[in-house]
Amino acid sequence: MAARKPTFNQQILIDPTPLPDSIPKVKEVGASSAPLLSAAFFIGARCKDYNDDYMQCKTENPGKGEFECLKEGRRVTRCARSVIEDINKSCLEQFRAHWTCLENNNHQLWQCRPDEWKLNKCVFDNLKLEKTIPDQPKQSTPLHLRQKQIYAHSPVPAWEKPFIAEKPQSS
Amino acid sequence: MPVPFETLIPYVIITAMFGVTGAGLSGIRHYAGGGKKHRWSIDTWDRQMMDRDRRLTGVLRGQTDNPIAPAGFEVNQPWRAEKRFS
């Protein structure tokens, strides 16, 4: 049988048979790569538990994860779809500006920080989701909040300031 | 004696040839990508995502921020059919 991935194919075969009716139907996420990358940290902020469940299920079922983890996968899809729907409802222009910038820049997040800061502000104000990069060292600014992006083609203009979400004062 | 300008003509021709091929290649990559800058250093993840973009939108570099996929997206993933090596 197939021990390696097929690469020398000359034809492709598309099988339009849908899944059986015993499996609940879920609508797939329709966003393509640039919007997904742009919304990725917000999907992570809202859907962390479902994503962790799915990854744990796949790790515990090596080889048959695609069949055993359908339920967790449906939850992941629904959660990600809800994040994209909410971003579309409330922050559409900033979202579109950011992913258009990403699409023009080889999908490199460090080229598009000003647009990203505007999107972060809008999403935090409307949806209360914050972008955090895990495991950043404590003594330096997190990567996405730095004014100086060393690998970017053009420097960040001085009037564009990073958006830092204020933590509510816990009394 | 100053350098006569005829001696520099070959260099001008060489530079023009390099320029034409460079501009042509860059223009081809621009149009092939639908007017966007071309993507470089594409790894397997990027190739997989670009393939998914083509399944979603029909164009290799097409992007959409629709939350719900168009009908038929779930079943249009291609199987690669190789001929047997025997």
UniProtKB/TrEMBL annotation, chain A:
One of its GO terms (cellular component) is mitochondrial inner membrane. It is found in: Mitochondrion inner membrane. Keywords: Disulfide bond, Electron transport, Membrane, Mitochondrion, Mitochondrion inner membrane, Repeat, Respiratory chain, Transport. InterPro entries: CHCH, NDUFA8. It comes from Triangularia verruculosa. Signal peptide: none annotated. GO terms for biological process: mitochondrial electron transport, NADH to ubiquinone. Pfam families: CHCH (PF06747). It comes from the Eukaryota. Belongs to the complex I NDUFA8 subunit family. Residues 91-124 form the CHCH domain. Gene3D superfamilies: 1.10.287.2900. Accessory subunit of the mitochondrial membrane respiratory chain NADH dehydrogenase (Complex I), that is believed not to be involved in catalysis. Complex I functions in the transfer of electrons from NADH to the respiratory chain. The immediate electron acceptor for the enzyme is believed to be ubiquinone. PROSITE patterns: CHCH (PS51808). This is NADH-ubiquinone oxidoreductase. Its main location: mitochondrion.
TrEMBL record, chain B:
InterPro entries: NADH_Ub_cplx-1_asu_su-1. One of its GO terms (cellular component) is mitochondrial inner membrane. It is a single-pass membrane protein. Its main location: mitochondrion. Keywords: Electron transport, Membrane, Mitochondrion, Mitochondrion inner membrane, Respiratory chain, Transmembrane, Transmembrane helix, Transport. Pfam families: MWFE. It comes from the Eukaryota. It is found in: Mitochondrion inner membrane. The chain crosses the membrane at residues 12-32. PANTHER family: NADH DEHYDROGENASE [UBIQUINONE] 1 ALPHA SUBCOMPLEX SUBUNIT 1, NADH-UBIQUINONE OXIDOREDUCTASE MWFE SUBUNIT. Accessory subunit of the mitochondrial membrane respiratory chain NADH dehydrogenase (Complex I), that is believed not to be involved in catalysis. Complex I functions in the transfer of electrons from NADH to the respiratory chain. The immediate electron acceptor for the enzyme is believed to be ubiquinone. Belongs to the complex I NDUFA1 subunit family. This is NADH dehydrogenase [ubiquinone] 1 alpha subcomplex subunit 1. It comes from Triangularia verruculosa.
